[in-house]
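Input record (one chain):
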Amino acid sequence: MNLDQEPLPSEHVSQLPPARRRRARRSLIPASNDARAAVLENLARKAFPSFEFFLFSLLGGAILGAGYLFDSQSILLLGILIAPLMAPWVGIALATVTGSGRFFFQTLIGFAISAGLIFGSSLLAGTAAQVMPAQTFVQAIIHSHLWWANILVLVLGSILLVTSFVRSEKHPILPSVMLSYELFLPLSVAGYGLGSGYSDFWPNGILVFCVHLALATLAGLLTLVVLGFRPRRVPGCFMTLVIGLLALWVFGWLSGGTNFILDRVNGLKPTPTSQGAIPITQTSMVSLLTPEASQAINVESTQTPTIQIPATKSPTNTPTPQATPVYALVFSETGANVRAAPESETINARLPNGYLVEILPEIQILKGITWLHIRTADGDEGWIIQSLVVTATPAAGW
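The corresponding structure, as predicted from the sequence alone:
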């Protein structure tokens, strides 16, 4: 059934004012109650979760877990392509504006089961990571933070998915992939982090998933209202108000309000420049390195993060020979956490990409992950994952 071609009763339309008559002809919802009920029933059947929905959720979750396990973006994209069509999510929004409590809980439970399958599959992959050799976490770090680009893709995907779902009988695959990418990737990284024991990914991934889900729900409800699916009964008005306010509160609270822009969108919280620190660019720093170290850094990067080094003290007349310190640069687009101890929940600082640190002699290896004892330009000490930095000075055996 093509909703765009649903006929309107001519006797009803002719009685409307000209402006409302034009809007009625363009509306997706028929004016008569019987025709409107038929349209909603058809959409409800399309949005109801099926066995294939749960099966592909399980398969997609397993592949996403493998993508984080091997830190492979290609495997993650494959998992998203296999993920099921996000029809139950549209059903949740549709049941909200129509005030259908039974259909709302059916689609909500179906969506929750799908999310649980993805989370559980990734948790098993994280458990397997504990017995594997040391690995990098580039993809996990990226998808456990909020980014403006992801927010834009999420909103656009939500609008396109709802619009395509109610206007066409065809499956809106591309908008569904856009929404799955923004919902399932952070949910999967949360399961992977819980299973692997790496604390950052577990809470961060859940928070990102909740923020994305809340924003997608707001966009979906507004899209349905614009398309003509407005609440016409008390239950619909009540559910739309409650779900809308709840989604708005979750988005505002978890994203940190005004701190959302500074703390979470860019995933970094640079340490303020200390007095006497000298800002230099990554390109100029590379020119001071040895040939071996300079090859390890992408000098063609357009980023020019501020690198802070302590101001040189005035030389004395009787200098004391000391061992050459070992320096390294933070080499991660999302920055790196400096912890009070390896795997500690206490984060002393968050360093941006390109920040210069001094490597201290102590090294610890826990669960296949190498932790380095470092000192920042401000003199603060802490522990950082070795894979997040690149040496800036020669160091035998490091």
